Amino acid sequence: MSVANREISPRLGYGATLAIAALWMVPFIWMLVAAFNPESVGAGMASLVPRYIPTLANFAEAWGSADFPRYTLNTMIISFGILAVQLVTVTLAGYVFARIEFPGRTICFYLFLLQLMLAPVVLMVPNLVMVAKLGLYDSLLGVMAPYFASAFGTFLMRQAFKVIPRELEDAALIDGANVWQRIGFIYLPLAKPSLIAFSIVSVTAHWNEFLWPLMVINSPDLRPLTVGLASFTRGAEGAQAWGVIAAGTLLVSAPLLIAFALFQRAFVNSFASSGIK
């Protein structure tokens, strides 16, 4: 490879990355500009360059037009409730598939992973029928129940547990530690990056999920942020109040954006340590 090629390729890659990043940022920049625009309606809403004195009027109107505190609370209950149960189930399942010997373990593991091959929308109707039979329709528990087990999380924890030297567990076993103590004091501390990475993926996915809560939830008081925002935007869109819609969308996105800004380095390190790209 010539010297010229070695110098040009990184520049092309860097330029392509910047171009894709700029293209990806366009909707977010428009949302920021529109949310602080005092006009809220009109041709000026299409501009990406602010030509006004920023105002919080759109945020005040959006906050007063929808029950965002209730939607936020429901979303937090769903996202962190699912995560709390998942951390238990994926840890135990990962330990079983990584350390417990039993006939057919490999086949069971691959059958378990088949869930990853299925599009989530395929499972919605069977899940909805099951939720209705269990009497969980129109409840937050009905939204949460299908996600209590995670094939992705189980796979991630199995891989994390397999690289931990078995000699550590053998030494704890000789000292009289039971299986719960070995998991709690040996495996979980050493698999902490994988746990954090999975937690980020889980909370982000369920915070932004729209279709499944829309199918299960019927009561307005039980709506999460995504469903509540959709109802809010339908009303605001009728009046073409794009500034208010942008402000409402920013309110919904703000918790995750703030969390990412505060813990960006920890997030990146967790993904790098767990091997997730």
List keywords for this structure.
single chain, 277 residues
Provide an overview of this structure:
The protein is mainly α and 277 residues long. 74% of the residues lie in helices and 0% in strands. The chain has 14 helices and no strands. The chain has helices spanning 3-35, 57-65, 68-99, 105-117, 124-133, 140-144, 151-162, 166-174, 179-190, 192-208, 211-216, 225-238, 242-262, 264-274. α3 (68-99) runs antiparallel to α10 (192-208). The model has no long low-confidence stretch (mean pLDDT 84).
Tell me the overall shape: globular
The total count of helices amounts to: 14
Give the H and E element order. Answer: HHHHHHHHHHHHHH
Specify the helix fraction band.
over 70%
Mean pLDDT: 84
Low-confidence stretches: none
Summarize the structure.
By secondary structure, the protein is mainly alpha-helical.
Give the SSE layout.
Layout: H1 3-35, H2 57-65, H3 68-99, H4 105-117, H5 124-133, H6 140-144, H7 151-162, H8 166-174, H9 179-190, H10 192-208, H11 211-216, H12 225-238, H13 242-262, H14 264-274
